Amino acid sequence: MLFSHDTELTLRAACALINSDRVDGEQLGDQPALDDYLDSYGWTGRRDRDDAEVSAVHTLRGRLGRIWAAAADEERAVGQINALLSDTRAAPWLTRHPEMPEWHLHLASIHDPLAQRMGAEMAMSLADLVRAGELRRLKICAAPDCDAVLIDLSRNRSRMFCDTGNCGNRQHVAAYRERRSKEGAVDE
């Protein structure tokens, strides 16, 4: 593990959130879909379960996508991360839950609006990447027909393809077929 468990989980949740409208259309278009996403990543605290909450999460998704897109420009990315920390009024405190007994940080009150809490925690996880000099782990899928994001948690930072559309496998098959067609042309 490169980062703390909660940092890695939050970064994975941020990727899933960003990708929720980049592959196969809108996947968080209503409250039940948002609830499924939240439950799958263990988000706790206040949920208003209304259209305004879904809209606020969509706005957060856009901001996070812009941070990923800016990852190659550290100053620009840091500016956006700092703005998100400021806008969400992040205020760290240690906590633990029965389902996650290790101490971890929460960065907003459980009574704050959902998108504010999510934004604060995701911004802090991104700040952890910056502090570790690992911002380059934020990537956009290398497949030419995919714009999904990924967090490269591999040891050597070699991951190139997302998990959303089987992109790595498709690219490897295409490269294999290209090599085979060239070999066939040489044999003739």
Q: What's the alpha carbon Rg, rounded to whole Å?
A: 19 Å
Oligomer: single chain
- Overall spatial form: globular
Cα(first) to Cα(last) distance is 50 Å
Fold-level CATH name: Jann2411-like fold
The number of distinct helices, counting runs of at least 4 residues, comes to 6
Give the biggest sheet.
2 strands, antiparallel
Protein name: Zinc finger CGNR domain-containing protein
Pfam family, one: zf-CGNR
Domain Zinc finger CGNR: 137-180
Structure commentary:
With 188 residues, this protein is mostly helical. The chain has one domain: Jann2411-like fold (Orthogonal Bundle), CATH 1.10.3300. 52% of the residues lie in helices and 10% in strands. The chain has helices spanning 5-19, 31-40, 51-69, 74-87, 114-131, 167-187, and strands at residues 93-97, 100-106, 138-140, 149-151. The strands form two sheets. It has a two-stranded antiparallel sheet with strand order 1-2. It has a two-stranded antiparallel ribbon with strand order 3-4. Helix 3 packs antiparallel against helix 4, helix 3 runs parallel beside helix 5 (114-131) and helix 4 runs antiparallel to helix 5. The chain is globular and about 65 Å long. It starts with a helix and ends with a helix. The mean pLDDT is 89.
